[in-house]
Automatic annotation (TrEMBL):
Domain Histone acetyltransferase type B catalytic subunit C-terminal: 229-280
An example molecular function term from Gene Ontology annotations: histone binding
Catalytic activity: L-lysyl-[protein] + acetyl-CoA = N(6)-acetyl-L-lysyl-[protein] + CoA + H(+)
Protein name, as recorded: Histone acetyltransferase type B catalytic subunit
Keyword RNA-binding: no
Length: 361
């Protein structure tokens, strides 16, 4: 994704066989930018060729390298790199008999060296998160959680940066904190190995222990991240009595909302979503009655905003002729039914993916 750098069409103008390589060292994330092409124009019809370095330099940390041998020299410093902040969680990922170690650190911007490091990791958001924006690091309410792979190389312990999360501490009445997960990124070589779920759970575990935290929110989650969140929240709620088996078939209860909030600091909207996922998981698709009840229950929830609009409509109806009223109501009803069905189907698709993952644990 490069639209924030090169414009909506994501095209670079004025070069033949263009290649822009951006390399980062694994630990310190020192950046090398190389532009290669087989020919360029100064301008076409008064439109100048894009100044790639200038466009990139508006987003990358000042002082990024453009010379390969200087970059190679920098690599010698990788062996002495130590992650920033305090170690809060460590875990292994095993695949094909090979076990790899990952460590998660919590830091503030004040940790020596981290401000600089953050300037180098932040541009990755532009490439991997749609509509990403940079944060104001001078606001002390930000906390940073960093994930590194820890490995041995040539007799020394090395680290490779794998991903990070930023959390903003909002105020919650009365005198409490409502952390909001803002930016989350797992770098592509580390994706789909369970790291995001592990990071989220490690952060949650710290929150559970903190009585000052009211509940945990997430800022505008992407679909992929929402799925990870649904999986982690559902995995946790499955251990609570109100979310167990038969109880799910009787609808979303106050007990579910309360326990999800008290035990796992999950807000009402997300607790309801988790209930729907776990109810679908419990529902026998071959049992027509059970499945119909589930569908109606979800659709009733999706319909709530329309009911509110319905009350506004009652007022409006006083000013319409009976024929006008009937026509408007029919078209609105059709649109609403279509919307309910398509939203239900989209949700079903998302929920099924979460259930597939839950079935693997
Ligand atoms: C969204 C994002 C943070 C998820 O990180 P991740 O570490 O890949 O997440 P996880 O590994 O926990 O889960 C992701 C998927 O991998 C699958 N997975 C996890 N472990 C796996 C394994 N060992 N083998 C195969 N698949 C696995 C999960 O089932 C899940 O599948 P799904 O997408 O079908 O639901 C990451 O993709 C990312 O950084 N994306 C770009 C930035 C972004 O969108 N950030 C969120 C902004 S709000």
């Amino acid at each position: 994704m490069t639209h924030q750098i090169f414009g909506e069409s994501e095209k670079i103008f004025g070069f033949r066989d263009l290649r822009v390589n951006i390399c980062c060292s694994a630990a310190r994330m020192k950046t090398l930018v190389q532009v290669k092409h087989s020919g360029s124009v100064d301008s076409v019809e008064d439109i100048p060729a894009d100044d790639i370095m200038q466009l990139l330099s508006q987003h990358l940390q000042p002082g990024f390298l453009t010379n390969e041998s200087e970059f190679v020299k920098e690599l010698a410093n990788e062996s002495t790199f130590k992650p920033y902040g305090e170690l809060i969680h460590s875990y292994q990922v095993t695949k094909g008999g090979e076990s790899r170690t990952f460590e998660m650190f919590r830091t503030s911007i004040e940790t020596p060296g981290f401000r600089d490091f953050h300037e180098r990791i932040q541009p990755f958001l532009l490439f991997y998160v749609d509509a990403a924006s940079y944060i104001d690091v001078d606001d002390e309410k930000w906390t940073y959680y960093l994930l590194f792979e820890k490995y041995q190389f040539e007799g020394s312990t090395r680290y490779a940066f794998a991903g990070y999360m930023t959390i903003y501490s909002y105020y919650a009445y009365p005198g409490l904190i409502r952390p909001r997960i803002s930016q989350v990124l797992v770098l592509p070589p580390f994706q789909r190995q369970g790291h995001c779920a592990a990071m989220l759970q490690a952060f949650y575990n710290l929150c559970y222990k903190n009585d000052d935290i009211k509940d945990i929110t997430i800022e505008d989650p992407s679909e992929n991240f929402q799925r990870v969140r649904d999986f982690v929240d559902a995995r946790n709620c499955m251990t609570l009595a109100p979310f167990k088996s038969l109880k799910l078939l009787f609808g979303f209860s106050g007990d579910m909302e309360r326990q999800a909030r008290i035990k796992f600091k999950i807000n009402k909207k997300q607790a309801r979503r988790v209930y729907e996922i776990l109810r679908l998981k419990r529902t026998d698709p071959s049992n027509e009655h059970e499945y119909r009840e589930f569908r109606l229950d979800v659709k009733r929830r999706i319909n709530i905003p329309f009911q509110k609009r319905g009350r506004e409509f009652d007022k409006l109806s006083k000013f319409l002729q009976p024929t006008e009223l009937a026509a408007t109501m029919n078209s609105q009803r059709e649109q609403r039914l279509e919307y309910l069905q398509s939203t239900f189907e989209e949700l079903l698709e998302e929920y099924q993916k979460v259930i597939e993952r839950l079935n693997m644990i």
